[in-house]
Amino acid sequence: MSYVFAAPPQASLAVQGEEARFPVRRIFCVGRNYEAHAREMGNDPDREPPFFFTKPADAACDTPCTLPYPPLTNDLHHEIELVIAIGKGGANIAVDDVANHIWGASVGIDLTRRDLQADAKKTRRPWDWAKAFDYSAPIAPIKPIKDVPSLTKGRIWLAVNGEVRQDGDIADLIWSVSEHIATLSESVTLAAGDLIMTGTPAGVGAVVTGDVITGGVEGIAELEVTIGPRA
């Protein structure tokens, strides 16, 4: 097959303990999946059906890293999240069968231009400009699922310059990993290479140039991201 210009490189992420990399196809993100975070954002945390938004595959980037402070914002926020890597595709996946479709897990940050998101909410416009910008999904090396101790419990945390800001447990997910992936598969056919960012606990906040963000999910992965000068 030929193209009118050179095809872009395949987006990919590092894998723990392996030279081979995980090819990223799409990134799906679950909104408001921790009760305390839903409340801090002024929303009702009742167990309504999960909703999703997306980031482009090439928003994913390896950690540790230094990322530029993005344009068009003065209110860049961190959101630490458990990340699920899909290794087997499918549609209408049963909740009890989701585990057979998971390749691995990691931890990532859903970087958010909060001021743009607030404007989008007021005008009832899509969140794309707030969520789907360059380098908006730094993610630690993926751990193969056979080595993951649990996807139902474990501390999830984030610190900025050593000060802990987010500190929760994935047991507090409103919709479990199996439940929200099954729901997602009712709308789109999942495929190997898809990533699902599963929502963030309370404590989100702003970061500025020079800040060093650290975080992790217990037993799965840890990351470090430095915010560089404005792009």
TrEMBL record:
Keyword Transmembrane helix: no
Coiled coil: none
Key words of the record: Isomerase, Metal-binding
Molecular function GO labels: acetylpyruvate hydrolase activity; isomerase activity; metal ion binding
Domain of life: Bacteria
InterPro entries listed in its UniProt record: Fumarylacetoacetase-like_C, Fumarylacetoacetase_C_sf
SUPFAM superfamilies: FAH
Occurrences of domain Fumarylacetoacetase-like C-terminal (ranges): 27-227
The name this protein goes by in its record: 5-carboxymethyl-2-hydroxymuconate isomerase
Organism (species): Sulfitobacter donghicola DSW-25 = KCTC 12864 = JCM 14565
